[in-house]
Amino acid sequence: MKPTVLVIQHEDKCPPGWFADWLAAAGLDLDVLEAHRGRAIPAALTDHAGLLVLGGEMGANDDATTRWLAPTRALIATVAAGGDPFLGICLGHQLATVALGGTVARNPHGHGTGLTPYGPTSEAADDPLFAALTPGVPAVQWNNDIAIELPPQATVLARSPDGTVQAARFGTRAWGVQFHPEASPAIFRSWTTDKPSAREARADGIDVFAAADAVEAHAAGLRRAWEPLARRWGRIVRDAWNG
To answer: Is 218 inside a domain boundary?
Structure first.
């Protein structure tokens, strides 16, 4: 029986995307928990080998409108404390930040603009997940909020060009990324050009059509850049399960 990763999905437009293929190729099964469709968040991992928490338009502290965020944060805290593998993507990264004692707020530098260069810190060189990644490769960032204060035990592994946290290690086997390594061009268009408001000028001046075209033009490079991240995390999950 293959080890199974519990995947928490917050909305239809934020699925596992490319990660589903990459983790399957790494020898894992995925149990996608669609929280927005009413499936309950467990208190702990039992039959699952790891936890992947995806992105979404809601904020990490929007408990009043998104009832499953509090139990998701509690699960992340339990998983990280127990040393089980965890990866948070965008909102998942922000939820981990809050769950473990950090702070998330609106990015004072503005909304993410799409393709953004990956900027590893010196600490990434010795990280089991990030060590082999290439500095400067493109990543997809599409977010309002950021981790403005990481939990005390966290380590910054990458920073965006504006200096904000782009990736972090929260524990022995726990990581978060502010970008979207899972996002295909079709997924990115569902957040941008496919919206009814796409033709309206944005107050921040971002051209969503240009951003989406750039993501599509770099699709092959994005896949080359971020498949190693998924496969490395998959190996960490397998090793933890078998160890």
So the answer is: no
Neighbours of 227 (CB within 10 A): 17
Give the Å distances, CA to CA, from 60 to 6, 35, 52, 144, 219: 19, 14, 15, 11, 28
How many helices (H) and strands (E) are present in the chain, helices listed first? Answer: 6, 11
pLDDT of residue 1: 78
Count Cβ atoms below 10 Å from residue 64 Cβ, excluding itself.
7
Which CATH number characterizes residue 18's domain? Answer: 3.40.50.880
Pairing of strands 4-9, 29-34: parallel
Q: Which DSSP category does 22 fall into?
A: H
Tens of pLDDT along 37-81? 999 999 999 999 999 999 999 999 999 999 999 999 999 999 999
Domain count for the chain: 1
- For residue 197, is it within any domain? no
141 in a structural domain: yes
Confirm whether 212 is domain-assigned. Answer: no
Q: Which domain holds residue 170?
A: 4-183+226-242
Instruction: State how far Cα 224 lies from the chain centre.
Output: 17
Give the pLDDT confidence of 1-43 residue by residue, as tens digits: 799 999 999 999 999 999 999 999 999 999 999 999 999 999 9
- What's the pLDDT tens digit per position in 85-130? 999 999 999 999 999 999 999 999 999 999 999 999 999 999 999 9
